[in-house]
Amino acid sequence: MLFFFKIIRNLSLFCMALVTVGYAEDITTAREKALDSQAYLLANSLYENAEKNRRRAEKNAENNPQRSARSKNIAIDYYNQAYELATKNSIFLEETLKARNLTITKVSDTLGNESWSQAEKLLQQSLFELNRNRTEKAREIAFSAIKYFDDAIVESIQDRMLKIAREKINTAYNLKAERYAPVTIKLATTVETQVENLLTKDRTQLKEAEFLSKEVEAYADKAIQITQLAKGKPSYETTIRDSESRLHRLLIAAGKDVPLNFNPELSTTTLENEIQRLRSQERDLNNQINNSRQFIAALEDEIRDLDDRLGGVSTEKQSLIMQIELQARSLEKLNQVESTFSQDEAEIYSQSGNIVIRLIGLKFASGSAELGIESKNLLNKIAKVVDLYTNSSVLIEGHTDSQGSAVENKKLSQIRADMILNQLVASMRIPAFRISSIGYGESKPIANNETELGREKNRRIDLIIIPQVLDSDLESR
Description:
It is a single chain. The longest helix has 47 residues, at 264-310. Strand 1 (347-351) and strand 2 (354-358) form a beta hairpin. With 477 residues, this protein is α+β, with helices and mostly antiparallel strands. It has helices at residues 2-36, 39-42, 44-59, 65-92, 94-106, 114-130, 135-174, 177-180, 182-201, 206-231, 236-253, 264-310, 315-340, 375-388, 406-426, 452-458, 471-476, and strands at residues 347-351, 354-358, 392-399, 435-441, 460-467. The protein has 17 helices and 5 strands. The chain has a 5-stranded mixed sheet with strand order 1-2-5-3-4.
């Protein structure tokens, strides 16, 4: 009897195991259907009950297969109910769910912002009313959620675009900017509000919003700067003298004298006039370049006309062609030289057919011929420029300020020029026969030796490239 009982029990357990395998397949399918229907969102209570029973079934799978199977059946039932309810709710909430999915797709960092949280809360309230057959109330709440999902996108764009600006505004306020720089910090917050209003009205205005965000950062930085300066409690005299000192430097840089009876208003006017003059000069130079190009184009047309009439046998025509082409090549090379250096590295001039490169980026201490490591990049650029003028010779001029004796300054300037020559020959592989050097000492100043800035400008290296046109250059054209 006991034997038959054991057989029946073993058969029962075996059948239960088979049922368990079947349930495992069914429960996986049921769960996937529920997930695809967003049951975790649209039928949350039923979905959570299903998940709870699924975990219970997995826990009891080895020790209590019978209880595990029962829990799986319950889980499958809950998954199916959740799927049916979620499908029904998704039809009713179609527009709201579209707005939700668009928000998630549009900006990934919306989750967690205030508008997103409110939208999710309203969505759950709408589901609550819907599941109690209060459809009108549910529809009203669902439409409210759509607005908050849309606001979440705007809020996210604002947060991302204004993040740095807001951090700087907070820093300014922590430093008490509202006390020391009230006007400037007010400007920062006013423009911040403009950005918010702009994006709220039209969130596609990203370029304008980005430009205004940079303006907010600038105002916040200025408020921090003013606050930190004001906290140091400088005297009025110190503040005025510091401002005048900066104006002095600008006058000297513009090549203007600093009068003994210094007047900030007149000095500002002087600088404004100088800037206007330089702008006018730049326009004139651009016009000259354009006129030259037009002249060259007219000559080329004339040459083509002569070619048609003379059949291409005119020696004068060939000479004219070569002159124009050489002029065009020279202009092209000069443009390449100018684009090689930044404004802080070199000033470029064309002088009597030669190219003058004033290496303002090479800084010498007074009485010294030593250069810093940072000069290596500038020397590399010099080598590239020299390579542009294949058939040229190069003269390196050394100059000093007027400190010390004229004899010693001439010697020092020669040492500086020789040092640049040696580096170009040794490191940059420029043939020595193409380069020469000369030291002029203090005899050719370009700035006022009575000021520190003027003396710094006079301690300089000028590189003179002297192009040479060979027959091979003409033939190659």
